[in-house]
Amino acid sequence: MSEATGSEKREAGAGLMEYSPEGLMPFGPVHPALKEPEYFKLTLEGERIVDVAPRIGYVHRGIERAAQDRTWVKNVYLFERICGICSFAHSIAYAQGVESLTEFVIPRRAKYIRLVIAELERIHSHLLWLGLVGHWTGFETLFMWIWKDREHVLDQLEAITGNRVHKSFATFGGVRKDLPEGIEPKLAQATKFVRERVKYYRQLMESEETLVVRTKGVGKIDQNIARRLCPVGPLLRCTGIERDVRVEDPYAAYDEIVPEVKTQTAGDIASLLALRLDEVEESCRLIDEAMEKLPKGDYKVLFPRAIPSGEAMFHVEAPRGELFYFVKSTGSTKPERVKIRTPTMANLLTAKEMLKGHTLADVPVVLTGMDPCFGCMDRITVFDPGKGKEWTVRGEALRKYGIEYYRRRAGS
Amino acid sequence: MGEMFRTAVSPPVTEEYPFGPAVVSERFRGRLDVDPVKCTGCGVCEIVCPASVITMVPTGKRKVGEREIEVKKPVFDLYTCISCGQCVEDCRFDALWLTKTFELAVFDKQSLVMKKALTVGK
Amino acid sequence: MQLLTFPGLTFFVCVAFLFEWLERKTAARMQGRRGPVVTGPFGILQPVADFFKLTSKQEIIPEFSDRFVLRWGPPLYFAAPAIGLAFIPVVGLTPVLGHPLDLLFVLFIFSFSALMATLLGYASAGRYSTIAIGRLVLQYTGFEIPMILAVITPSILAGNLSIEGIVAAQGSIWYVLLAPAAFAVFIVAALAELEKPPFDIPNAKTEIVGGWMTEFSGSTLAYVKLTKNMSYVFLSALAVALFLGGPSGPVLTQSVLAQEALFSVYFLVKLFAVGFLIFSIRTALARVKIGQATRLFWTVLTPLSLLQVGVALIMR
Asked: Would the pTM count as exceeding 0.90?
């Protein structure tokens, strides 16, 4: 693999800090442990990890740039496809960002429905992650079982929105359809089922020896590291710091149905497991409460095609943490700028900190302990140590540079 | 661990498809379909489609009072369609709806172009 | 001739395929899935289909690997459990190949397998393979001693160093009853040798991709997988011979031929029982880290097996 370091030097402007070839272990970009490609350069001594250098950009799609070419409504569909797992969180963050630029008030029923879907999505995302922990520790059986239970949640999502992953349910002014007839007992049944299974999995996480030794004490961070590196979401809450966007800055119906912020104190992967299980239970409770108190009324208001000019910022609690949208309008039918900062971006460096001192066997578990969603996260920043400056390459410039570079290289 | 043996003897959760029927929900968003009679050629669907599936093509002319205006009807490139349903929602004339068909794999992309709406001219 | 067909090579290759199918099916059922269904009734031909599919694929050997070893190593690796199986009695008390000291040869086969795997991983010289063989060697040194001790125990009880002799000496009281700890240790060590969870550390799919098998593809991989299945059968068969009395069972007919068939049936039944035991354990547990595995081997298994040997000596 010494060819890899050679070709890196030739790559367009991406001169990274050079590591010595021995003990250098590439983790990714394509690796069975990572669901999405990212490149982590691990410096190893035997099996012990000395340093981690993440390199991102492998699944960068230029979505922020694409958003500028599309009208406001079309962008709803664009942004929900940033991530399959936190799709609805992106939807409502964008929708609410845009709604705050206008004078419209969202009907209460719509807010409640948004909450229900958002919490269902949180359950599905956490169950997905929990199953994946099983997969990464070699515990395939746990993986299959949890995903089997997750199907119940996905069935409910499909019954309400029509699709399991890209729900296409939020729109400006509310949600696109009302809840279907007869959904209440089905939802209640689903939450009851999930709650029971959570009890079983909680007991399993604590009693299954092989799982415990893989997760307890692994990837430990404490509050100091958390304050320094600013992770968000469950990664932050597992150190004992109580921060949750739903409580601090309520959106949708969270001001009326208040979630209880769950924390753990240990700061390792085992505590992340327990924390996410707690959050699943909490989401079940929220759904039940919301369905009970569901107000009657409209589920959406009509929206004009052009949005008044202004800037708006909005953040939501996606399953992975704080998802932040910045929307700028100049009064036309297309957005001027949309900037998205996803939770995985904030958690990446903390994951790096978690890995130090551990062995290679812990890498998948820890890296995925932060529940990465690189699809959400990617950006391209170019750092040139020779010139000592750093700049962010715009899409068009990069494209032109790439064409020129390869043309030169091919000698034509 | 007893759970393991219990799961072993209970029926598997895997769905039968494709050896059995596919189970989809009521609101499942599959392939788009159009009613040529209801479609008036207003063109709103073309404007709102996020995937640029719809193209309005001229199909003739119509006399409205003294003027002659061009009538356009939609052609759907269904191989690009993401089944979001925005056009269904925005069509005032209820001419569009999403079916439950999802098996759309073809060898020839052009066979997924739907020109149904061109047939009934006004 | 008998060596090649029944109960020789062909027979055991078929049993190896059957074992893989059984493993996938039971693991799937325990997880709520179906397992192989398409090929043959109940998907029983799936391992065969996989084997032929792999042989039909292009073989890609990285340029930093040792071509010669990668080409000729796998058949050698295959030879180990294949020959070992010839020493296990299937029809009646006499195995196809017998020797008064064949238990030692069997122990040699374990070392040989591990050595070949290490060699193949080393010859691959990929980054993942290198880490994997480090783990493999560590794991091997861990389980070798408990394995040897567990295997010695029945031979102490029988006073004999040949497998045939051990089977004969068991008579109606199987050694699993007299030396249960040895049986347990043997099963655990077998899991380690076969690199199955919780000991699939050298072959950890989500950490080091394929382990020492990463760089293999095409027919080489097909043979390596077949060899792993053969090892599976071999270890289970060894467990049956050493602890469960081999093909012994009630004598029901007078005809020698029918009796031999019946013995084979008993053998197969016990074989699948042991296999099922291993599958269940494998499905139920996660993977442990290499440090924890070695700790387990040295601090738990080795003393336990030593204790068992001591007990056996006393019982003699």
From this structure: no
